[in-house]
Amino acid sequence: MFAVISDLHSNIAALEVVLQDIESLGVTDIICLGDVVGYGPQPLECVDMVMEKARVCLKGNHDEALVHGAYAFNLRAQKAIEWTRDQLKPGFFSGAAVRRRWEFLTNLPLRHEEGPDLFIHGSPRDPTNEYILATEIGFGPTEKFEEIFASFERFLFVGHTHMPCIITDKYETKTSTELNNVYEFPDMAEHKVIINVGSVGQPRDRDNRACYVIVDGSTVKWRRCEYNIERTTKVMDSIAQLDQALSARLKEGI
Fold first, then answer.
1. Which residues span the domain enclosing 120?
2. What is the pTM for the complete model shown?
């Protein structure tokens, strides 16, 4: 049994509650799909927590932009990354803890495989930036989804969209809500399923509770955790470089 978390976005209040929930279930194995930073006000605390708790942490597009530049980001996200970089990037006189965080973020892997399952932030075709959206599914295969399904054998765990759902190789889709937060493989599938684990730090499915999954054999369960959103938004609103629209989104879950 293990947990998969993603898209923490420097929201320590949400991350702490999720980690407490994971611990309450007796789960000790945690895989993070990336976007540890970005948008939120507590990047240092989130990076430290992930380094301590996650067995594997992958690189998300915000983690990548932190190191290489936010060239394709909208202005709000770009300003947030620039502020985050100021908090994290070592200077000449920086101590060991600062350098350790930066080294961790610089060296995050793009993908992780365990048996028949693949873990990635965005998509196997573009690990940090391509979105896999359930709304793209029409009446059958497309070249994009054929390539994606060809890249793994059973489960593909992704984040990036902040929208918890499944997409099967029979081109059926269900949100976590429609599934009552439980998916039993191989329901609705031939052999393969894409599983979006949702977002810990910035949900966008109109449910502002932190979201992650527990995997137990062939069973995937989404967990929703209430947390003190005001604890995060109060700090965000005190930082000029973090647009107030970002904190407003947290309250609405959009």
1. 2-252
2. 0.96
